[in-house]
Amino acid sequence: MARGSAVAWAALGPLLWGCALGLQGGMLYPQESPSRECKELDGLWSFRADFSDNRRRGFEEQWYRRPLWESGPTVDMPVPSSFNDISQDWRLRHFVGWVWYEREVILPERWTQDLRTRVVLRIGSAHSYAIVWVNGVDTLEHEGGYLPFEADISNLVQVGPLPSRLRITIAINNTLTPTTLPPGTIQYLTDTSKYPKGYFVQNTYFDFFNYAGLQRSVLLYTTPTTYIDDITVTTSVEQDSGLVNYQISVKGSNLFKLEIRGKGFDWPLLVKDFNLLRWLGANAFRTSHYPYAEEVMQMCDRYGIVVIDECPGVGLALPQFFNNVSLHHHMQVMEEVVRRDKNHPAVVMWSVANEPASHLESAGYYLKMVIAHTKSLDPSRPVTFVSNSNYAADKGAPYVDVICLNSYYSWYHDYGHLELIQLQLATQFENWYKKYQKPIIQSEYGAETIAGFHQDPPLMFTEEYQKSLLEQYHLGLDQKRRKYVVGELIWNFADFMTEQSPTRVLGNKKGIFTRQRQPKSAAFLLRERYWKIANETRYPHSVAKSQCLENSLFT
Ligand code: BDP
Question: Is the pTM of this model over 0.85?
Fold first, then answer.
């Protein structure tokens, strides 16, 4: 949509890296500058869920053509937030289908009159399929939640004398299908003795609640008509000098409100979480199981937290999810992830999936292709996916740089038998290392724990059990840490909401902090451990550190 077709690449530094071949255009984080103004559209939007049987009434009646209130009742919906947790209407919590958001904005006169100004509408994320209209004009469509998308809307706002009032309508569909990321299926329940006619449910194959809506900020910003579209920063070392290279593409000549925001972006929560990471002495996390908000990545850069940046490739559990349409979409999503996050020094590795059914032949091919594509987009960073398959059966592991493993010894089996953990963990590491000779990260381990439940000797679900289970894991991890195990990531930082099931008590409770960010006993154990390790490896030339990196890709 950019006006002016000239695209100039200004290379301002030696280009050591011919990357970004597959990246179409930039997705820079909007920042105010002498030549850019921003107008945040966070706050109250008008909202309506389309409860009609086929969920398509909004399109049939063209709700986008007129103010939303004219076609029926609307409710207030805060942005950013997930629509599921806001209303007392239970139907909204589990709603599957199209929801409609609308907001009117008054633009500064200069934006509408100055033809040397570009006006861009940017949506931080809309889960999961979105169509955007500006003043009733179909402007933009985007598939996939968790990543930003934008459109130059100058030609819609600069149309003669003062149409300074702008109506933005966004229809969002949260239905997960076999070709979305994450995938899902819709199941119609046809037994009329049990279910009303047309009754359906959304099946998912991952362990978090499928919150949806405008969960990150929406904003308008301006650039001059000649503007920087993209920046790519790469680093290298020449003799004893560190080099920072950059390539610029120019175009054109408080209190927690958890429960009520779903996973809507929240600054106080973000700052609290980083304070907790610092308190813990933690230095890394994985964006399980989708890219986090850009503000999170910026905080990681600032706080020195390294990140395994994971795309929404979660729930790839069924054979039919490994098809060509999904593969193509998955590659496109990786392009969007790399395009958005490539310049964050915090990102140390890309993860293309979590626990795919990687024992399948079709999954092997699929993962090979997605990993190769990601490497072609960014040859400078290692690529992985997170496996919970058996080492002998996994078909994707040959293609990763680092093996990432999830295991739940003495939790999902051998209930209560904490004494088995060290043996089972050692077997896991030895098998994988013998087969692949690659560095290994324990990317998940943990136990469900309800804060305030106590029992000694420990029983499952108590704080004592979580603590003891982690202790056993740590003994096993310490055996390999100085050899080839290069990282350990607890599951999970904090409790989180999931779908309802007999194994989940108001969500997943494997957090070492509650959802309100209060520590369980295990948080103190981890704090001691992380700081101890940090102090051991503080000096770059210490024996501990060089041993730790032995055989790793990073030497
Ligand atoms: C792992 C999944 C994660 C779940 C976790 C659990 O990667 O999403 O939340 O198990 O069961 O398999 O707690």
Answer: no
